[in-house]
């Protein structure tokens, strides 16, 4: 084993040496460790064998000079550590990236800075690998023109931990199962975390701020999201956590604060005879705490704190059947009942209605006036003397009176 692990020291000054890194990779036996000294190395490199490239010190830069992908990995058992990867191309159809990993397993990318790269780290058919403690940012482009900071495509059983994605587009987990996504941070992105056709993923203790969407789950099942903080997802489509056509989800112990929509539920649970559990979440100071769209029943919504929101429940389609969900034991700051026996459970149910004159439910332009005195007055008058029979949305039979 010791004979296979050959340590190559490349002593370079801070200047570009064309092809020297690729030559060292090509000449190194499988299992070698290339320890790079501080310097500027030409990118566009390809790794086709088990190999480690580690920066001995800070300031090891691999520069793609604006062309293609900077580092391409086509092998299992590859480690990239303590490197700065920069200067990919800008072609979306080629997925120009800082690091692209294909058909790999048990590889590691950690402690790297990836900047000025259209896509950050792109994993395709890569399993049982570790992506940790990387700082990733895209090119200085409009939000929709950036590439994804971190992309998992048909990649299973990976650990994605303590990465920072700043001013990229999305982090996507598509057709990928069994991944742990833990303690990551996302800021000023579009989708901080976007799932499609993914199952059995574990999403824990991530923090997402100032993004268009915090976490959005689509066409997925059997996933746990717990302990996440989603803050200030704003704009017309801003939401904290979105559930579309998902089944057997546990959304627990999350904090969703200052978002346009706290939790968005669309045709979920999707599969017959399944449930989703939304429990012990703090849904605080959002424009809408929970927004239901299309048929959404059999969600179990318990022990959540629903506080300081402009609207607690929004139903934008008459067929969503919000009253067919199990809603119990939540704290509602606008509950108006009493607790005569002092058991911290309201003596009467907390009921939520939708009034026909709540224009902001159906007219997005009116949402501009959320929180203004005129909207507050209209809301008060609608409840005091509604112009038509209100629509019953849901009830919590056992509302909590104290946090």
Please provide a written account of the structure.
By secondary structure, the protein is mostly beta strands. Helices cover 5% and strands 44% of the residues. The chain has two helices and 42 strands. Strands 1-3-6-9-12-15-18-21-24-27-30-33-36-39 form a 14-stranded parallel beta sheet, with no helix packed on it. The chain starts with 6 loop residues before the first strand and ends in a 7-residue tail after the last strand. 42% of the residues are buried. The model is unreliable at 1-16 (pLDDT under 50). Pfam families: NosD (PF05048). It comes from Halarcobacter mediterraneus.
> Assembly type of the shown chains?
single chain
Question: How many structural domains are formed by the residues?
Answer: 2
Q: Estimate the helix proportion, in percent.
A: under 10%
Shape by Cα distribution? elongated
Report how far apart the termini are.
59 Å
- Counting DSSP E segments of at least 2 residues, the number of strands comes to 42
Biggest β-sheet strands, sense, barrel = 14 strands, parallel
Helix tally equals 2
Key terms for this structure?
14-stranded parallel beta sheet; disordered N terminus; 2 helices; 403 residues; 42 strands; elongated; Pectate Lyase C-like; 2 domains; 5% helix; mainly beta; single chain
């Amino acid at each position: 084993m010791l004979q296979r692990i050959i340590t190559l020291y490349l002593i370079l000054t801070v200047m570009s040496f064309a092809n020297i890194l690729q030559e060292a990779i090509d000449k190194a036996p499988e299992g070698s460790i290339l320890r790079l000294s501080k310097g500027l190395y030409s990118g566009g490199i390809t790794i086709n064998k088990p190999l480690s490239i580690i920066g001995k010190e800070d300031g090891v830069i691999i520069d793609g000079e604006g062309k293609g992908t900077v580092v391409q990995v086509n092998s299992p058992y590859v480690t990239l550590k303590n490197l700065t990867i920069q200067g990919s191309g800008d072609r979306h159809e080629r997925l120009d990236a800082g690091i692209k990993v294909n058909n790999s397993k048990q590889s590691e990318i950690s402690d790297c800075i990836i900047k000025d790269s259209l896509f950050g780290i792109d994993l395709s058919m890569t399993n049982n690998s570790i992506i940790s403690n990387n700082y990733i940012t895209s090119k200085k482009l409009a939000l929709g023109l950036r590439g994804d900071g971190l992309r998992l495509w048909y990649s299973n059983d990976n650990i994605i931990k303590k990465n920072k994605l700043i001013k990229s587009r999305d982090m996507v987990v598509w057709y990928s199962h069994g991944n742990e996504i833990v303690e990551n941070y996302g800021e000023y992105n579009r989708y901080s975390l976007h799932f499609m056709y993914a199952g059995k993923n574990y999403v824990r203790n991530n923090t997402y701020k100032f993004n268009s969407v915090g976490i959005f789950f689509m066409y997925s099942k059997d996933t746990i999201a717990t302990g996440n903080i989603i803050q200030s997802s704003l704009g017309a489509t801003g939401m904290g956590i979105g559930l579309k056509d998902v089944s057997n989800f546990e959304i627990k112990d999350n904090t969703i604060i200052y978002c346009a929509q706290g939790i968005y539920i669309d045709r979920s649970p999707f599969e017959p005879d399944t449930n989703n559990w939304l429990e012990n979440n703090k849904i605080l100071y959002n424009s809408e705490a929970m927004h239901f769209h299309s048929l959404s029943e059999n969600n179990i919504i318990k022990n959540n704190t629903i506080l300081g929101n402009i609207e607690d429940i929004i139903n934008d389609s008459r067929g969503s059947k919000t009253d067919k969900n199990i809603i119990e034991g939540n704290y509602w700051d606008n509950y108006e009942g009493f607790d005569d026996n002092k058991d911290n459970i309201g003596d009467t149910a907390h009921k939520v209605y939708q009034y026909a004159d709540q224009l902001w439910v159906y007219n997005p332009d009116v949402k501009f006036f959320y929180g203004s005195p005129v909207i507050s007055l209209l809301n008060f008058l609608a409840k005091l003397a509604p112009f038509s029979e209100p629509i019953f949305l849901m009830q919590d039979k056992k509302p909590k009176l104290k946090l």
